[in-house]
User: What shape does this take?
Amino acid sequence: MVLDDQTLMDLYTTMLTIRRFEERVVTEFYAGNIIGFIHSYIGQEAIATGVCKHFGVKDRIVSHHRGHGHCIAKGADMHKMMAEIHGKKTGYCKGKGGSMHIADFSIGMLGADGIVGAGLPIACGAAIAAQLEGDGHVAAVFFGDGACQEGEFHEALNLAAIWKLPLLFVCENNHYGVNTPASYSLAAGEIVRMPEAYHIANNQVHGNDVVAVLEAAAEAVELLRRGEGPFFLECETYRWHKHYLSNELEDLRPREELEAWAERCPIAAFKAKLIAQNVLTCDDVERIDREVCAEVDEAYQFGVDSPYPDPEDALEDVYSL
Amino acid sequence: MREITYDQAATEAIQEEFRRNPKTVHLSTDLAADLTDEFGAGRIRVTPIAENNFVGAAVGLAGSGFRTVANIRMATFAFVAMDQLMNHAAKITYMFGGQATFPVLYRMTVGAGISAAAEHSVTPYPMYMNAPGLKIILPATPYDVKGLLKTALRDNNPVISFEHVCLGGMKGEVPEEEYFIPFGQACVRREGADVTVVALAKMVHDAMDAAAELAEEGVSVEVIDPRTLVPLDTRTILDSVMKTGRLVVVDEACQTCGAAAEILALVSSDRAAFSALKAAPARVCGLDVPIPFSPPMERYAIPDKAKIVEAVRGVMRSSKPS
Assistant: This one.
């Protein structure tokens, strides 16, 4: 697959945007300026970026509790994201969802669900819709190795397989459910043995290599658009932060493992490659970083400056008209 | 007027709405042959036996612009789908700030009376009343099931239709012309002056039989069928109690924390209705036991005409002197 310079730069910029957004959230959380359950996507940026690059607004995705990266990669507005994370009226969910439940239905981002595995059945519905619409659009669901332990995972694989749903399963295998290693929790050993058992085409890629993810997803999405779905893509990766940001929660993962994965930073490696290939100059790198940081600053400030909802707004949106 | 069964009336509602709206899907573990023939296997889908999956798929379809009927068959199977019903269907409109609508009609049977034992005889709608975001309907007649399902299929929220297992074969008058029954509008099944009986689901029929028997004793019973629990027509109930001064609530669900308890709380916390009471209100509910298999025990565990008659007589006897 030959990728033009613009595509490569876009991939780099998207990954960097996710990184800078998440870094800002981490900083402000530990400074006491953000509350709630925040699940950082740092370390996994290449997956959302490489997969969502193939999608337009009519391709629908379902995300999980660690969902900021999927939102940004799908084209969500960081202002509304930051406002939601701050519980403000101007947020995507008017402050009712918070970090864990950001959605933007106008761009086909059907929301992040905080229950492990719960996005899978919902994504089946989005894929049935795409199949009935019949215009080649697809659905994708992001989930982790933890979700592979849930019944909802197996039910979704089974349904997608028997109905040939245009559904891309994107397993972000970061090897841990909080502190419990997937090697302990998953009897199947290799995750792809499970889609294999359901006769679902599958592939395993290095999830920190954005081009590898992009290329594997390209092949998968093409199959889906032709009605030859579903497809299961396992992306091996690692989260850099604790399960959620916290001063109390312990991180029991081996220190050396974390350090080894930090060496395999999806962004640093890609940046070095683009400079070596003369796609980016060092000036470009500085300029892009400046621009991205300015955007994140502006979004953050919007979140801070936005008004809180009125308490009685709690009564709205329980039902639709 | 023509007479058709409760089940036929329900199917007609779905057929009419599916003809009108092509973006509709039916999911069920059972083949719905009468629907498949007309609408095709693309829209009328037989699912694997995976309730949590298809209950959640209906949520995803809704978020993608489709309207779904998910027939869970028996309420006991819905317990398998609690994650999707409680964590998602009920909350998703709210949690995402009302950005999208989630129109899904979940259908399931409830109730005892067919020796189906504890698991398959549940009446759990009170539990769902405690989950804001869901609408709850209890159609008690062929006419009502068609009119309420028609309304449900135009509503933009998740609606659960609890249909009593003994009613499916019941025949009743159903007009050929299209009609809708609005949610939150109770039906006064029988007007009366002495005591208000609020009865739910199949108990409406037992209450009507009881009212006929009591009329022979000179007791005039008003029978109210709320028809929908969420929203609940509180006005009709309160007005009736203010007229009669006496209240008996009849529900097959277990008594503790039930819909009957909620209706009693409604009346006793309304100043005007409370002042109008001439006697302490009474409940006739299912006993707080799992439903037993053996018929003598099963009959003992759920309300019937005789128990309703007894409760009404009790309320009449215990009245304060006026």
The first strand of chain A starts at residue 60 and ends at 64. The mean pLDDT of chain A is 97. Chain A has one domain: 5-264+289-305.
